[in-house]
Amino acid sequence: MSMLPLIVWCLAAVLSLAVCGVCVMSGALMPGDGRSASMVSWSVTGMHFMSVIAAAGSYLLFIVGSRRFSASMNGFYRSVGVVSAVIIVALILAQLVLIVLQARKAQHQQMDRVLSGVAERNHGE
Predict the structure, then answer these.
(1) DSSP string, 38-69
(2) What pLDDT, in 10s, does the model give residues 53-111?
(3) Structural domain includes residue 8
(4) What long-range pairs does 117-120 form, CB within 8 A, spacing at least 24?
(5) Does 34 map to a domain?
(6) Measured over all CA atoms, what is the biggest interatomic distance in the chain, rounded to whole angstroms?
(7) pTM value?
C-alpha cells in the first residue's frame, strides 16, 4: 500500500511522456520535418486527461494513506513531494504546449490545402 502513490505517479509520468512523444511524431514537430501534421486524436486527449487524473491521484493517495505508511516511506514522500510536483506539472504543461502546436500546425496545413484548391478553381474559370 505504501508504494501505491509512487506507482500512480510513475504511471502519470509515463503517460505524459507518451503524449509528448505522440504529439511530436504525429505533429511533425521536429525541425526540418516536411511531413504533414495530423489532427490531435481523441486518444491523445484521453491520455492527457488520464495523466492529469493519475498525477492528482498520486498526491491524493498520499494524503489519504499517509497515516498507514511507515515513518521512512512517509519521510521519503515528504522529501520528494515538491520536486515531484514540479516535474509532473512541467510534464503536463509540456503536453499542453505540444498538443496546441500539433493542432495549430494541422489546422494551418488544412487551411493551406483548402485555399490552394480554391485558388486553382478560380484560375481555371
Answers:
(1) PPPPHHHHHHHHHHHHHHHHHHHHHHHHGGGS
(2) 999 999 999 999 989 999 999 999 999 999 999 999 999 999 999 999 999 988 988 88
(3) yes
(4) none
(5) no
(6) 80
(7) 0.85
- Count the neighbouring beta carbons within 10 Å of the beta carbon of residue 2: 17
Q: Checking phi first, is residue 108 left (phi over 0); if not, alpha (psi -120 to 50) or beta?
A: alpha
Total number of domains constituting the chain: 1
> Which residues fall within 8 angstroms of residue 18, CB to CB, at 6 or more apart?
47
Which letter does DSSP use for residue 35 in this model?
A: S
Asked whether the beta carbons of 62 and 20 are under 8 A apart, the reply is: no
Which region among 11-15, 53-57, 118-122 has the lowest average model confidence (pLDDT)?
Answer: 118-122
Q: Fill in the amino acid letter for 60.
A: L
Cell numbers for 45, please give them. 486527449
DSSP code of residue 84: H
Radius of gyration (C-alpha) of the chain in whole angstroms: 21
Cβ 38 vs Cβ 106: under 8 Å: yes
**Closest to 9 in 3D by CA, of 110, 109, 91, 99:** 91
Range of the domain at 72: 4-29+39-124
